[in-house]
Amino acid sequence: MSKWYEAKAPHEDIVISSRIRLARNLSDFPFESRMTDEQRRQLSEKVKQALSHVTVSGETLQFTEMDSLEEIKRYAMVERHEVSKEFIKDPTHRLLGYSKDESVSIMVNEEDHLRIQVMASGLNLTSAYQQCNKIDDVLDSELDYAFNERLGYLTTCPTNLGTGLRASVMVHLPALEKSGLMNQLTATVNKLGLTIRGTYGEGSKVLGSIYQISNQITLGITEKDAIQNLESIVLQVIESEKRARESLLAEKRRLEDVVFRSLGVLRYARLLSSREFFEEISNVRLGVSLGLIHDVEISRINRMMALTGSASICEREGRELSPEDRDFVRANTVRTYIS
Amino acid sequence: MSKWYEAKAPHEDIVISSRIRLARNLSDFPFESRMTDEQRRQLSEKVKQALSHVTVSGETLQFTEMDSLEEIKRYAMVERHEVSKEFIKDPTHRLLGYSKDESVSIMVNEEDHLRIQVMASGLNLTSAYQQCNKIDDVLDSELDYAFNERLGYLTTCPTNLGTGLRASVMVHLPALEKSGLMNQLTATVNKLGLTIRGTYGEGSKVLGSIYQISNQITLGITEKDAIQNLESIVLQVIESEKRARESLLAEKRRLEDVVFRSLGVLRYARLLSSREFFEEISNVRLGVSLGLIHDVEISRINRMMALTGSASICEREGRELSPEDRDFVRANTVRTYIS
Prior knowledge:
Chains A, B: Catalyzes the specific phosphorylation of arginine residues in proteins. The structure is a homodimer. In chain A, about 45% of the residues lie in helices and about 15% in strands. In chain A, helix 2 crosses helix 11. Chain A is globular and about 65 Å long. Chain A folds into two domains: about 5-245, 2-Layer Sandwich (Creatine Kinase, Chain A, domain 2); about 250-339, no CATH class. Chain A has about 350 residues and is α+β, with helices and mostly antiparallel strands. The interface of A and B includes residues 269 and 271 of A.
């Protein structure tokens, strides 16, 4: 079975992935912050039972108990956006359910009792939401959600109250960044009630010109409106990035020099830091998107970005590595991927 | 017929080329600085007549009158070390005789009436001197050299008085340079009565870690001793460079990273300045010499160095180019040469 990130996708030249996440809590348990370990164990069992009714592409979910994993593996999962940072802080009774194609993942005992997450490649919010909604319906019929007629779904943090929905899109904006237009864009996006931030969410650094744009408002708005609002603004961001790319193309030789040099580094370096990898792969992605580089696939680039994090590298090597050893393995991994 | 620089040569991992030059003047003409144009014309004719008796590998020389060439072509010849800078300042009545394999070149009406030059690849001073001496003997029997029993050959500049011999070797010393040992080496070499300087002789910048080591003393020393002295010191420099290379190899991954990145730049860049080209090709040459890079030939590297100068590029394009256009053509030229 192919993975979600291998699919050709709408707007994949600029949009890396779309994500829908629903926060849900059960009325017969206190919120996470007030739960005992025993309650967490009970919740985990109960939810696992309910999740056995969920199918994705005709197949039931697989499960991983976070405390059965080595620490390095858990860090690698965060790096690949498979689980949240919050989720691995204390792995006790934390359960992950996921589909074979990795598009669906459900965290049990995260900040909320349930975090249902669906990923899709490119700009694909609607289909991701439909998938998420279907799973939510199945669980709703099996579990007793904490729901208030006036407020909507009750959540640990009030910022999720209402729909419990967070829709987000990972966008690759190298041309806007190179043209110094990101500050202006960030201000505009914020004014429109959305958030734009770095690759690993709140407070994180921007790596490889990849930004995450997500909705903020969950109260007094329908899921459909929230998603449409995000999507229409992302479409405008895509247009801005396209215009900025056209400006860069006006000096085609210089742009080609930049993107091909980056391809050269990825194909020839023997030591590659994570930071440099992201800078170079960002240029290569731009080059591929603009049709300057022909022999590299966008999906391969996206996958490389996920696989070359320090934790993922240590996970594959099966041990902690020194920074230079990591840079060495990263360079080797990238070379085999991109040559 | 293959060119001199295409031959496999002794110590080619470190020594690029050896050069022997003899300065000669005719007793029946004043020194260059005091000659009239008419005298220069007469000298040129007379010498051309004498040069018709010279053969190299069984073939007679070819001739170029410098004032028949476009300026750009003359600059390109200087860049490729085919003639001296001095020689093209005023091309009037300046005549160049050269062999098909380009190893022998004879400048008429340079600073001295005659400058006989022989090039060889690698460390090959003795064979170059033998060739030069043979030509000198032929000319000596045809022309009346200005010679003094006590002083030796008379020359325009007293620094050439005596043997009129300048022997020089182009060496590639990237490891000594990277290890910060060049100042020390320069001091030692100078103490031993030799000169070490940049790629284009006196006062020129060092490009690509290439240095020219040459004898200084021409008075009170035989040709043989001068050459042996230079050769034995060059052999010591070679040993120092080899030791420095071994130290660099102790951190093999880092060295591989440096040399392969440079190979990547040369194979992928779309704009390449002369300065950067020399930096990168120097690393690649080091990588090839150390057996780290396998698919590039040393002779091809040497040739690339000669062909990618700004004047040579303009010469091939047949017109003056802007700096960016030159960088563009240089990158294209290098890519086809090294891929």
